[in-house]
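Archive record
______________

***
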Amino acid sequence: MPLDSPKDPKIAAKADLDPQNFALANCIRALSIDAVNAANSGHPGAPMGMADAATVLFRNHLKFDAKNPDWPDRDRFVLSNGHASMLLYSLLHLTGYEDMTLEQVKNFRQWGSITAGHPEYGHAKGIETTTGPLGQGIATAVGMALAERALAAEFGDDLVDHHTYVFVGDGCLQEGIGQEAISLAGHLGLGKMIVLYDDNDITIDGPTSISFSEDVAARFQACGWHVQKCDGHDGKALDAAITAAKAETGKPSLIAMKTVIGFGSPNKAGTYSVHGSPLGRDEAALTREAIGWAHDPFVIPEDLLAEWRKIGTRGASDREAWEARLAGKSAEVRDEFNRRLSGELPKGYDAAVKAARDALFAEPRKAATRKASQMALEPLTAALPEMIGGSADLTGSNLTRVKAVDSQYTRQAPGRYIGYGVREFGMAAAMNGINLHGGFIAYGGTFLVFSDYARNAIRLSALMGVGTIYVMTHDSIGLGEDGPTHQPIEHLASLRAIPNLTVLRPADTVETLEAWDIAIRNRNIPSLLALSRQDVPQLRLDGGDENLTARGAYVLRQFGEGRDVTLIATGTEVQLAVQAAEALHQGGLNVAVVSMPSWELFDAQPEEYRMATLGDAPRIAVEAAGKFGWTRYVASEDDVIGMTGFGASAPIDRLYQEFGITVDAIVARAKAVTGK
């Protein structure tokens, strides 16, 4: 006989608090149990525990239209505790997202499905960001909230007026990036950001008490958040809490929901055993009985499914009203809004790039490439109102602030420059969120050595295909006296190892401008600019409109007919290669100097171009960083003039001399490999 009420009296008591919400939530629980069991892999506990809250949110508050999932003014929903992915997939299927079919749910964690183990941006509609690495979801959501406020300030709240909702677990709040996000959001008063905390007292290793005993609510309050607590299985209490959070516009909101992980499971609820393992057939059957679910696996009763589908269309009228408001705007406003959201560059952008190039060729400049970056940003940010900059407390060193973005983002006014504070990881994730939201091109700066702090967010940029721009200055031992703690050695090799990331180490002012042009145009590939502290001469002196940096490498100088040796260099060491080539040519050798600002772009060129650029002669590489990886272009690491250990604290010239990155060292190696 079908069960129509929970058998377990404690569960029945919870169900009685809001019976309809409980019944709808059971759809999520059942699908999550079934999908994880079918895959024999996954995390059923969190979806089972958060199902009541997710139902309240989608049923009563979340502004969305399942039939139009990309509606710009939709609320954003971020599942920061991404291991609970079946919660999100269940919601998307139940509310009627067309691509999230029951077949996709049944193929959870299988090859070719859109239901990956953790939510992946671009796999399915309704997944706003890739999550799984804990804490990054909430930090990315901060970026979305930053973007919403800034876009509303430009186009008005009749076009931009939505919330960012985030589900987090204990792990997100234990991660350092979680605290970076909480602190920044509170400081800037992001009142349209609402976080629901799955406070279930369980992590993978067991109860949170083994490693976590702080007062979470007090921590959020100390950071300037509006804080509430409620029963995470009480639909009415959850509804009231979300309503109160929406009413608080001056502060971000935390709702600490006391929940039971694996809610409904007679033998596993409240234990770590339900966190990352399937319930199994027997426990699944017992759970169905306990919660009053009498349906076969993957079967949702028609009445409940119909109610869920109604929830999925609840926002259609809001969307239609929004479309009418957009249509009522002037053509100028409407076109600009649509351009910004589409990512299309404005008509004046190409002219701004050309004017900047022409100015450099007309009057060559000697400058550090960090300064060259600032010079490039001056005209480009003026031509691109969507560019929004920032730095992790290193603005004066990164030189990321220019006139067009010289308006501070504060809680009172969302300017075009964000002071991220000493939060490199949080900055990187927030920039991802800004770009994911749409309407902006976010860039931010720190030292290259601190890319280690931001690395996992950089990796997610690449994984998602989001064109975040990372400005990384002080790119080598050329930083000088600050010493080895601040001198990146292994970092270029490490960053070049990340798929779908374009690393650019320009040699002069022209290459730096071209690097910025590449980064701005690549909206689906993140870019990282490695920039120098020390001055370098402008090496490109011949005019022309072709962006040679976009080729990844090109012959910068040719000394003599043919080649006896090819010198390949990046960044500040290109000038050393040119000087060495001049000396070698005076000694009778024919030498080509190849500037290689980007391995990734060069490797993407046709084979014919690559072979013509590198040539058949012996090759030597020069870069003031670790030698690792250069053997893809040269015969051995002996042919790399670079670093074999960490740096030291001393003036720049002394460091280059002591570590053997000199014209004399290049010349000596060239003579050795050529036998001349």
Observations:
- The chain is about 45% helix and 15% strand.
- The CA atoms of residues 237 and 577 lie 69 Å apart.
